[in-house]
Design goal:
Blueprint (H helix, E strand, L loop, with lengths): L1 H12 L6 H4 L2 E5 L4 E6 L10 E6 L4 E7 L13 H11 L9 E7 L2 H13 L9 E4 L4 H7 L3 H9 L5 E8 L3 E8 L1
Parallel strand pairs: 4-5
Antiparallel strand pairs: 1-2, 2-3, 3-4, 5-8, 6-7, 7-8
Length: 183
């Protein structure tokens, strides 16, 4: 009987993270292909996913397909995207330090549009052409613009011991495919 009273503490020490999302009002729905969705009663669209990710454990890639946390009704147990990603990685047994890249097809918000316009002007990319670029820290002005996007801050918070070494930008009509390469 004494063993069962110690079980929660023992599970904590072996790294079991099950329930972190649920403890904060989120439900994780996993599929066999590494795709998962997160739902919450606090999302304004009801039972539609607030987040959708694909975790490719073997290659250390996280694909963010949807991150609509800013549309959640604010609540006491609300988790940041960083904390949600950490919990999802734990659920898939993906060690954070083994992540090689984070990919997101991001809608063009003001920060991203400004960065694209700056790049377009700097490199004489015509308005009717899409920007396709690899941005590195050595390109200080461009790097500064493309790291102002909110996803970069989330990656830095989630992986404080790692560095983003390159950002691949592929502009599309209404969005940009951003790949953050991590070392």
């Amino acid at each position: 009987m004494h063993f069962f009273s110690l079980l929660p503490a023992l599970l904590m020490f072996v790294g079991v993270n099950a329930g972190v999302l649920e403890d904060h009002g989120y439900t994780l729905h996993k599929s066999d292909d590494g795709t998962c969705t997160i739902t919450t009663d606090y999302y304004k669209e009801g039972n539609q996913p607030v987040n959708e990710f694909t975790v490719k454990k073997d290659s250390g890639i996280i694909v963010i397909r949807q991150a609509l946390n800013d549309l959640e009704t604010k609540h006491r147990d609300q988790m940041s995207l960083t904390k949600i990603l950490e919990a999802v990685c734990s659920e898939y047994d993906l060690v954070l330090d083994s992540i090689n890249s984070v990919v997101m097809d991001a809608y063009k918000n003001d920060d991203l549009t400004d960065a694209l316009e700056y790049y377009r002007e700097l490199y004489s990319v015509a308005d009717n052409q899409y920007v396709t670029a690899y941005i590195t820290p050595a390109m200080s002005k461009e790097w500064q613009r493309f790291t102002m996007f909110w996803l970069y801050a989330n990656i830095r918070n989630m992986l404080p011991r790692s560095s983003v070494t390159e950002i691949r930008v592929i502009e599309k009509e209404e969005s940009c495919l951003l790949t953050y390469f991590i070392a």
